């Protein structure tokens, strides 16, 4: 887009979530030391329609792509190698469509950190989205957002509110911030914080994970995109 002088913001909404921005700030400030292990979980309340899966590119490209971007965002580093496992444990029709509905991926980053990503198309309790980065001096953690922060305790134990049910509810403030940032970039000529190169990098990671799952082997990022992100 720079070549054509077009302003482009790639809408990876999690980059605009206040909690993940704070996680990134804490990591960059050195509060947890050198990042060593990142763990990301994304579980949707129910699978999308099969018609969507047939054209979406599959779980690694329509769902986990957000985790790939979040990992790059939090660690401020580029991936080097990907290994993926996947299976159909939710709906056999998803397998018939050539995809998986449950996947676990490990990504090795250039500076040595490992990232473990778990995705599922089903979570009976709502949209499950958590992140953790462990470093040489500590850890920073983002838990699920609940419908409210009330906890009730009695002889039966502790009871809290359910998690927000879907990503549209979970990330509404992030979508609003994303739109605000883009308008500011347009009006003031600023470079967006998520650009075309970020979208390309996550797509490459998605294809690497898909190839790893299909061929049951680790796949180096250098096998794609001319070896560069």
What features would you describe in this structure?
The protein has 229 residues and is α+β, with helices and mostly antiparallel strands. 34% of the residues lie in helices and 24% in strands. It has eight helices and nine strands. It has helices spanning 18-28, 50-56, 59-62, 65-75, 92-96, 167-170, 172-188, 196-215, and strands at 35-43, 79-87, 102-109, 114-120, 128-135, 138-142, 151-154, 157-160, 219-220. Strands 6-5-1-4-3-2-9 form a seven-stranded mixed β-sheet. A two-stranded antiparallel sheet has the order 7-8. Helix 1 (18-28) runs parallel beside helix 4 and helix 4 packs across helix 8.
Overall pLDDT metric:
94
Q: What structural class do helix, strand and pairing data support? A: alpha+beta
Computed over alpha carbons, the radius of gyration is 18 Å
Low-confidence stretches: none
Give the overall shape, derived from the CA principal axes: globular
Taken as a percent bin, the fraction of beta residues is: 15-25%
The description of the largest β-sheet is: 7 strands, mixed
Which H/E pattern describes the elements? Answer: HEHHHEHEEEEEEHHHE
Distance between the termini: 15 Å
- Strand line-up across the major sheet: 6-5-1-4-3-2-9
**How many helical elements?**
8
Oligomeric state as shown: single chain
Approximate helicity band = 25-40%
> How many strands?
9
């Amino acid at each position: 887009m720079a070549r054509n002088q077009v302003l482009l913001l790639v809408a990876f909404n999690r980059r605009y979530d206040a909690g993940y921005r704070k996680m990134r700030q804490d990591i960059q400030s050195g509060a947890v030391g050198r990042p060593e292990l990142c763990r990301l979980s994304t579980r949707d309340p129910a699978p999308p329609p099969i018609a969507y899966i047939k054209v979406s590119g599959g779980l690694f490209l329509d769902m986990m792509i957000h985790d790939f971007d979040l990992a790059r965002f939090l660690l401020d580093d580029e991936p080097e190698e990907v290994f993926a496992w996947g299976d159909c444990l939710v709906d056999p029709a998803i397998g018939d469509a050539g995809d998986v509905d449950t996947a676990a991926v490990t990504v090795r980053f250039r500076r040595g950190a490992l990232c473990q990503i778990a995705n599922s198309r089903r979570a009976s309790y709502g949209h499950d989205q958590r992140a953790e980065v462990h470093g040489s001096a500590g850890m920073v953690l983002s838990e699920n957002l609940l419908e409210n922060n009330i906890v009730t305790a009695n002889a039966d134990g502790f009871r809290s509110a359910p998690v927000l049910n879907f990503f549209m509810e979970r990330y509404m403030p992030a979508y609003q911030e994303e739109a605000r940032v883009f308008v500011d970039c347009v009006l003031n000529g600023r470079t967006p914080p998520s650009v075309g190169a970020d979208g390309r990098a996550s797509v490459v990671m998605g294809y690497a994970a898909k190839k790893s799952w299909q061929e049951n082997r680790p796949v180096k990022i250098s096998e794609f995109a001319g070896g560069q992100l």
